[in-house]
Amino acid sequence: MTGIPIKTFYESDQATWSYQSTHVDGASRFITVSGLLALTNAEFSLLEYRDLDWNNVDGQIPKYVAISHTWNSSPEVIKLSTIANRPLHIDMGEGSPSTISWHGLRQAALAARYLGCELLWLDFICVHQNSLDDKKLQIPNMGNIYKNATAVIVMPGGVSAAQDFEIETEWATRAWTVQEAALCPNTYVLGMDYVWLLKRKADDYLWIETSAWPGYQDFTYIEDSLALADIRGILNHLQGVIHIEVTNRKTGEVVRKGTWELKCLGDGAVVWAFAALLLAKTPAMRQVGVWRSLWLRKSKYPQDTVYSMMHLLGVEIEVDYNRSREDLIAEVVRKTSTSFPSWLDIMEHGAPRELRQRLFPTIPTFDVQQIPIFTVEKQPVPVEKYILTQTYMKIFNIKVLIPAAASADNGGLVCTEIFEIQNSRDNETLVINGHGEAYHWNLSNADSTHVMLMGAEDFIIPTNAFIQHLAAYEIKKSKSGAWECFPGHGGVPKEFVGKTRRSHLRIGGSPGSKITECDCADGD
């Protein structure tokens, strides 16, 4: 299949990029690489593939690299692109154009050529940013664009320039970057490495390093210090901080001394959630990474926090910006709860709970391009404070028979093993229903009366530590008589499990639900 050139654009014209009437809404478009490689007077052609069927792609799709980036450039990228002084203005239909850089596009083109591709996909240009009709048709294809790319390159500080791998960015906080980096198995970060390149020049530099954790250092150099790094390798080294000292052998000058660590994807809970997704060894691990990301990321439109992740959850929802984010989340919960109810595994102890159902985590407050927050005691608190990070639920013992959807009031009916907490002198003791086997339990809520089994935990990034118990939530009746749940401090010993029958219980919703033994077998 051959693309139709619909426009050739030249750096020398110094014009603003805009679409012409020759384009077809919803068609797939790609940027040619060869002309971008010039250091001055670059150019590119936009090719349009009008009959490309993303449901039947065998043999149809040209080899291309898709770019993942943040629309708002980091301070470092702004500085680098200003020095390069090769602005590229793009008509966004919002009164004034957005400006990126031919310099950054050249770096992306160098990476594409290295990866064996002669075409690039970049949303700024390949999606008609000034056409609602084109956007409506393109958004459902975003997952296909990244999944079918030969490779994806991440430019975490923005597409205007590749920045140092050590400099922290907000890339991981953006909603759409989750699927952009997760759907393609060949995903790389494009950046500048000024440190590890010196280690390769052993004749010129003396290198000394001390570290308990090895940092990522498997860079593939494209041009000078411009390098590609495998994104999964980076995530496997989130705890890697290296103390280094580099000395020029000829002059004796210490050219670098201090710590080195990878911050290019960002930091904190949002990156750990992303690691859970990309390093997933089980479907449950993958799902929990997506759900935690949905709670942590920001976007221009509230609905995009859902649309950007629905493909990763195996859910298809019609794009409709008239629906609320809460309604969309409720639909995703209904469509995923029977297989992997990973939305149960978002928050840690002490997090706000959804008041109507208690089983469902509170949906954060959304503001345009702002970090999600909860309001706790009338004060804004970043959601990140409550998100679980280094552990996840690898096996769910609990089954959700009727999901606690975000917009419903009837709570959620669960099936799991439920154990009673009995006070024994000064300690709380977990007692399996009538079997008399006791285990000390540290209460997280003073009024909790029972513990319900959730499942087996594991670590996101493997360590020498291991977990010998199964995760559980404490439960109690509220003043109105409805059941509430709280993530607990402790866990149920594995040897306790399976010695009692499973039970049904409605969490949240109408008062009066009772713990009722059932005949459900584990795994049914």
From TrEMBL:
Domain Heterokaryon incompatibility residues, every copy: 64-163
Superkingdom classification of source: Eukaryota
UniProt cross-references to InterPro entries, sorted A to Z: HET (IPR010730), HetReg/Transcr_Mod (IPR052895)
Annotated protein name in UniProt: Heterokaryon incompatibility domain-containing protein
